[in-house]
Predict the structure.
Amino acid sequence: MQTRLILFFLIFYIKSASAQQPDLLSLVEDEKQPKEFVKNSYKSTRVIMSHSLENLAGGVLDFRILHRFGMINEGAYQFFGLDQATIRLGLDYAVTDRLTVGIGRSSYKKEVDGFVKYKLLWQATGPKSSPVSVIYVGGTTVNGLKFEDEEVENYFTSRLGYYHQLIIGRKFSESLTLQIAPTFLHLNIVPETLNRHDIYGAQLGGRIKLTKRLALTADYVFVANGKDGDVEYKHPLSIGFDIETGGHVFQLHFTNATGVNERAFITETQGDWGKGDIQFGFNISRVFTIKDKRKK
Amino acid sequence: MIIKTISFAVVALLVTSVGLAQDKYFTKEGKITFYSKTPVEEFDAVNSAGLSIIDTKTGAIEMSVLIKAFEFKKDLMQQHFNENYMESDKFPKAVFKGTISNIAEINFTKPGTYKAGIDGKLTMHGVTRDITVDAIFIVSIAGVIAKSEFIALLDDYNIKVPGVVKNQISQQIKVEIDNTYKPYVK
């Protein structure tokens, strides 16, 4: 009896083993899905004004021109703002896939700024992966204007401002990306004792990809303590389109923001969308591969 | 009697498993490179994680590569390749399933170089096409190397190149395959 049983199993085993495999590749495919980092949550490293979830790939240099015209509601005499311009020229370099450093020079207040951007967590798919990306951005700004009173002793540190942001965001789908970034900004010196030294806020941003090469973007900063002495500062809101052409990304936008670096647009925005204090602007990003990523 | 039967069964099992193991060869590090060359721009991309398996009994040969695993010199190209051209979120893999037409002429146990023809279906970017390629198999003690080279047309796979970059991306893409296979053991 037992012998028969064993024989039966033996025959069964041989039969099943020699049965034709329906799919050869399934023999070598890993059942586990490999961990894969989510990329291309934005076309650019800036949503419009603010930093986005996206870091440059290691070894890539990004030359950025941020150009903004004057207020549209200034009318025909100023050619609807096109007679004036504020610009920031910047260079960003990615040391690694997670670490980017950058410098820039803005025409507004002749400010120079530098920043460090580090990807702490990277959204990924597969086992043990994070559902969101978390990025730290820290920067310093240096006001380049001549001191108002040159008679008294002035310190270099009086020119400085600092900002810190923690960007938390997720690419929900191929077409939708959203982010929120708690922001803290400190100004070393302010004109009056009533003025703010510390500014708190949160940036909200996102994009909706319309076609492969076109996306709608929005970038808003809620400034918690907008009142500064007698002035009530506004929350900067920018709405635009990202257009990608080969090696360039153009970010055409409308905004009420003042200035083109974090210090300026978070603390000095006075334009009111409701009153038509809107400026047209564009960012141009051109990337250059400095280091071949395949030869690390 | 029972012990005898069991030992016979065990031996039989071993023999059949070994017998099965020898007729399949596989790799998880298949190398696939493609080249685009126009007067304006030249570029290439490499993928060293191709999966492939050969069944020497039937002559069946299959290969599968992840589109996202292609590496370019320039990250931006890689980004555009995935997002705009191959749409790798929608179509993550390229898969080839075919048959070595002259499998009888290739002796996988005897070192040497064998010419082969392979017919099959290549699926990428959601389009399946019949293709026929020439290949060479180099059998050695260390394993089996298979090499092949063919041209793929972008239009055949519904990969559209916009007008502004038409002079930078070739319509004819040269594809090179270089796989080193090892015996497949379950």
Chain A has one domain: 51-146+155-289. The longest strand of chain A covers residues 198-211. Residues 18 and 98 of chain A are 50 Å apart (CA to CA).
